[in-house]
Design brief:
Elements (H helix, E strand, L loop, with lengths): L7 E7 L11 H9 L2 E4 L8 H8 L5 E6 L1 H14 L3 E5 L5 H5 L6 H10 L2 E9 L2 E3 L2 E5 H8 L2 H7 L2 H11 L5 E7 L2 E7 L1 E5 L3 E2 L3 E2 L11 E6 L5 H12 L8 E6 L1 E6 L4 E4 L2 E5 L2 E13 L4 H7 L3
Helix pairs in contact: 1-5, 2-3, 6-8, 7-8
């Protein structure tokens, strides 16, 4: 007769600068312990999470990241390199990846998922060698990332995105971008180009209504609007992910795309400016493993007799 199963060791990394980074984790740790997960916090909390994950590869069974999409973006490279499964405690402002994965936004409920649900593979996007989970964008969204301060997010939450967007909207101007994909080259004038790996981004926007983080595809759209006020009219569609049906929005699915602009323009990945154009963007299928509920279709199928 075998003895009790040894607990899994988890490196718990929390970003104290996240909007809810000071959340009391006592109940979270208790929930994890009940599920057979023992957490260890790094001795140097200020250490870069990428270095922590790289060092943890041989000593831990999984990583738990407490923070928002920026925290996850910073960890993506190391997670992919070390092939450690990970879980999310949604402590950020938008928590777009958590919402794309249908994870509970309550940290204690999220801990229960980590403790009880098997890890499953998901895709990553990659732009100029930098991994991302949700979306890479050039134009208005990238400018918004520079405008959206940590203080604004902390004070107003997702409403902070709207506050910053209104400040920026009247200054938005179309720019020229050359788009290369699937043997095609197109030159367009646009306000924003977005390339999504996941479904949600930007505190309530949706890349494409049917997108998933494990479909092996990127969802592209370009807002080729004549006037800034047209963005306001498109807002409901942008929230639903149906903007691709509009006449002044170019949309397609692909696995790889190159974006070139006359002058280098910043590229926003998951709310962080991480590189600039020219931007080579590709999908890396099933690159990392995460503790998350199964896809909806799979979950529904499992309920059938």
């Amino acid at each position: 007769m075998s003895g009790p199963e040894a607990p899994r060791r988890a490196l718990l990394v929390v970003n104290p600068r996240a909007r809810n980074g000071r959340f009391d984790l006592a109940a979270v740790k208790a929930e994890l312990r009940r599920g057979g997960v023992e957490t260890v916090e790094p001795p140097s909390p200020g250490q870069d999470c990428r270095d922590l994950i790289r060092e943890a590869a041989d000593s831990f069974d999984l990583v738990i990241l407490g923070g928002g999409d920026g925290t996850l973006n910073g960890a993506a490279q190391a997670l992919a390199e070390r092939n450690l499964p990970f879980g999310i405690l949604p402590l950020g402002t938008a928590n777009d990846l958590a919402r794309s994965l249908n994870l509970p936004l309550d940290p204690v409920a999220a801990a229960r998922v980590i403790a009880t649900v098997p890890a499953r593979p998901i895709d990553l996007g990659c732009v100029n060698g930098h991994y991302f989970f949700n979306v890479a964008s050039v134009g208005f969204s990238a400018d918004l990332a520079g405008e959206l301060t940590a203080d604004l997010k902390r004070r107003f939450g997702t409403v902070g995105y709207a506050v910053a967007a209104i400040r920026l909207l009247r200054r938005a101007r179309p720019f020229t971008v050359h788009i290369e994909h699937d043997g095609i080259t197109e030159t367009v004038r646009t306000i924003q180009v977005s390339v999504g790996n996941g479904r949600h981004y930007g505190g309530g926007m949706t890349v494409e209504e049917h997108a998933t983080v494990d479909d092996g595809l990127l969802n592209f759209y370009s807002l080729e609007v004549a006037h800034w006020w047209r963005l306001l009219a498109l807002l409901p569609a942008l929230r639903r992910g149906t903007q691709g049906k509009a006449a002044d929005v170019r949309a397609f699915q692909t696995t790889e795309v190159m974006l070139r602009t006359r002058k280098p323009r910043p590229v926003n990945t998951d709310g962080e400016i991480t590189t600039q154009t020219p931007a080579h963007i590709r999908v890396v299928p099933h690159c990392v493993r995460i503790y998350a509920p199964p896809p909806r279709a799979q979950a529904q199928a499992s309920l059938l007799p």
